[in-house]
Amino acid sequence: MTSLRTARAAAGARLLGLGSTQPENVVTNDDLAQRMDTNDQWIRERVGIQSRRIAEEGTLLVDMAAEAGSRAVKDSGLAPTEIDTVIVATCTMPNGIPNAAAQTAERIGIPAPGAFDLNAACAGFCYGMGTGADLVRAGSARNVLVIGAEKLSDWIDWTDRSTAIIFADGAGAAVLGPAADEASVGVGPLAWGSAGDMAQTIRVNPDTNALYQEGQAVFRWATTKIAPIALKAIELAGVTPADIDVFVPHQANLRIVEAVAKRLRASGARDDMVVADDIVHSGNTSSASIPLALDHMRAAGRVRSGDTVLLVGFGAGLSYAGQVVVCP
């Protein structure tokens, strides 16, 4: 029987760099109140958002993906030529073909990488991180660029206040590379899953081609089901809730974020655990929300190099995933 060679495995993966970008156009709650039946207080009380960023019509999703990816590669200290795999997590490309990843890689100057898109909606970045880390660990890739990028404004009915007040545009990225040994592994195993029986709670309306969601059903599900996933990710990483310095969940709704953080603290997380609240000024950017929040927190000094960070994504599908990482 023929014996085949396998790739040389690594001990695991670690985070090397972060980057993000948002459109310059800020849309406040008062701006939306001029277009629909809503007001600043109503929006803040329900989802916690004060403002969000919306891209200009001519801005492409791959424009934002390339900008965030370029910044992450620069932050990692690597040259674009040292990246061999590009993963773009997105659910808002205008068409399925061509994919975003190959176009994004070409714009950054990454020559001939493995490049593919991944659609797990708001859980997409965590799915991408898990996939990228496993590729590095298996030896199938060395340096992986993972990008979460969304232009949700292309998929919104701007007369529907149930969605128009929530969603926004942006991109965030991370670079993964091999850990030298087990002691330097910086990306924990992925705790993931799905609830296909609730798939219709977040969907695209075929008549309007606009995003639709059953907000209350998603809220009830997220506030009860996400904390156990977060705790499972902590367990798989071999740490305890008390070891978590920073919690960065998908920025879906500030009330969901606060409810999950409360349950984690009841399970042993520290009172001083820093919790991301990027949704207040960024809105819900789906797969981009976690890397955007993490990069913004690092820039503000709320997360530091070496901090133990819990990431948890959840959304349409319904799909969810969580993992523990060490901040670069």
From TrEMBL:
Which Gene3D superfamilies did the record assign?
Answer: 3.40.47.10
Q: Does the keyword Transmembrane helix apply?
A: no
SUPFAM superfamilies noted in UniProt: Thiolase-like (SSF53901)
Q: Which reaction does it catalyse?
A: malonyl-[ACP] + acetyl-CoA + H(+) = 3-oxobutanoyl-[ACP] + CO2 + CoA
Instruction: Tell me which residues this entry annotates as catalytic.
Output: 122, 250, 284
Q: Which terms in the GO cellular component ontology are assigned?
A: cytoplasm
The places in or outside the cell where this protein is found are: Cytoplasm
Q: Where is this region: ACP-binding?
A: 251-255
Q: What is its EC number?
A: 2.3.1.180
Gene Ontology terms: biological process: fatty acid biosynthetic process; secondary metabolite biosynthetic process
Single annotated GO MF:
beta-ketoacyl-acyl-carrier-protein synthase III activity
Pathway this chain belongs to: Lipid metabolism; fatty acid biosynthesis
Give yes or no: UniProt keyword S-adenosyl-L-methionine.
no
Q: Could you tell me which InterPro entries the record lists for this protein?
A: ACP_syn_III_C, ACP_syn_III_N, FabH, Thiolase-like
**Major localisation:** cytoplasm
In Pfam terms, one family for this protein is ACP_syn_III
This protein's domain notes? The last Arg residue of the ACP-binding site is essential for the weak association between ACP/AcpP and FabH.
Assembly behavior: Homodimer.
Family (UniProt): Belongs to the thiolase-like superfamily. FabH family.
Q: What does this protein do?
A: Catalyzes the condensation reaction of fatty acid synthesis by the addition to an acyl acceptor of two carbons from malonyl-ACP. Catalyzes the first condensation reaction which initiates fatty acid synthesis and may therefore play a role in governing the total rate of fatty acid production. Possesses both acetoacetyl-ACP synthase and acetyl transacylase activities. Its substrate specificity determines the biosynthesis of branched-chain and/or straight-chain of fatty acids.
Q: List the PANTHER family hit by this protein, alphabetically.
A: 3-OXOACYL-[ACYL-CARRIER-PROTEIN] SYNTHASE 3, BETA-KETOACYL-[ACYL-CARRIER-PROTEIN] SYNTHASE III
What's the protein here called? Beta-ketoacyl-[acyl-carrier-protein] synthase III
Encoded by which gene?
Answer: fabH
